[in-house]
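User: Please fill in residues for this 280-position structure.
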């Protein structure tokens, strides 16, 4: 079997997101590669290739093509143990209490999944949220480019979008990962109180949904200092801590540096106006 055929088979098994940058660079993202998969990609690198490996565990030894490397801790929820075990494993009693509180509001709640409406409303909520925090925006084009691997879930309270998540689904590794989360909790004390219960309820419903679909792990994404509010929020669901590794590789180092600049420009263009309707 040729190396090209081997690589095509590896790509079919991994979540792979590919784009051309300025018609020069081939930029690809690979999620959760195994050692063998990462080795196949590395051996196939061309001079104009820029590759990112996301959420690798354990660490890889793939010099000399590595240009950048860092690690991040995340929280893994074991969905394979079943909903009862996940519920009992929540490390904070208040987390369960807030989910129960949310369940008393279900006559006012609706959850939209994977629709154009969910995508549109998520971007409106998320970009208002990140704008208030001074963080990069997310674009409709990003949602469209990643729709084959990602799913958007939005919770509505009294018909208004309150909070939403974008999750990456990787059937090969049986992992679903939280990529983006936004809410209206910064807009008022009343909305903050509602989000405290309903955002947890949305995560809980996701865990039930993906367990039913056969996923084994709910990956909460990065956690930093345990005193930070977002980390405390994720910790309240229990689970275990895993260190994941992230890599930037290139066939030629100067190409990777150019790729880094292009990646930063992509982040800088992540803007979205709620009145925009075009999704192409």
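Assistant: Residues filled in for all 280 positions:
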């Amino acid at each position: 079997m040729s190396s090209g055929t081997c690589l095509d088979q590896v790509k079919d098994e991994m979540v792979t997101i590919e784009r051309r940058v300025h018609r020069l660079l081939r930029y690809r993202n690979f999620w959760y590669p195994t050692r063998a998969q990462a080795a196949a990609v590395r051996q196939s690198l061309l001079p104009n290739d820029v590759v990112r490996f996301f959420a690798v565990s354990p660490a890889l030894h793939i010099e000399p093509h590595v240009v950048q490397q860092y690690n991040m801790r995340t929280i893994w929820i074991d969905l394979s143990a079943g909903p009862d075990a996940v519920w009992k494993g929540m490390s904070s009693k208040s987390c369960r209490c807030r989910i129960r509180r949310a369940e008393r509001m279900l006559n006012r709640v609706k959850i939209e999944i994977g629709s154009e409406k969910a995508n549109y409303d998520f971007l409106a909520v998320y970009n208002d949220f990140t704008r208030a925090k001074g963080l990069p925006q997310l674009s409709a084009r990003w949602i469209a480019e990643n729709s084959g691997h990602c799913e958007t879930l939005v919770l509505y309270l009294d018909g208004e979008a309150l909070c939403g998540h974008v999750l990456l689904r990787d059937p090969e590794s049986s992992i679903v990962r939280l990529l983006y989360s936004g809410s209206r909790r910064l807009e008022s004390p009343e909305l903050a109180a509602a989000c405290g219960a309903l955002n947890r309820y949305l995560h809980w419903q996701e865990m039930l949904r993906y367990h039913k679909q056969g996923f084994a792990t709910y990956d909460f994404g990065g956690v930093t200092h345990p005193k930070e509010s977002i980390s405390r929020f994720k910790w309240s669901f229990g689970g275990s801590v895993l260190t994941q590794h992230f890599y930037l590789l290139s066939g030629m180092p100067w190409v990777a540096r150019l790729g880094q600049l292009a990646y930063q420009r992509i982040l800088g263009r992540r803007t979205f106006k709620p009145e925009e309707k075009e999704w192409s």
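For context: The CA atoms of residues 140 and 278 lie 8 Å apart.
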